[in-house]
Amino acid sequence: MSYAYKLNEDVHHRAQGPQGRAEADEPAVYTIIQRMPIEADGRLRYRIRSKAGNIERVVTEEQLSYSQ
Question: Where is the segment annotated Disordered (predicted)?
Fold first, then answer.
């Protein structure tokens, strides 16, 4: 299994909205800062940092898309 995104690449993160809410917020732009080890469930994970603020998250690859 190979990672789709490279270090320092800009991506969009699609946040998951709270239950019962019709829409989630617009995707925000983040930078890949680390590729995390593959977990037992086989999903690829990344540590990302927000371009707009000092927010870091660990997300799965399916939550990301290429930034335009």
Answer: 1-24
| Closest by CA position to 61, among listed 51, 50, 46 | 46
Domain limits of the chain? 10-16+25-66
Report the predicted TM-score, pTM, of the whole model to 2 decimal places: 0.81
pLDDT digits (tens, 9 = 90+) for 25-49: 677 899 999 999 988 899 999 999 9
Residue in the structure block whose two tokens are 């371009």: 51
Report the distance separating Cα 46 and Cα 63, nearest Å.
10
- Between the two ends of the chain, the Cα-to-Cα distance in Å is 25
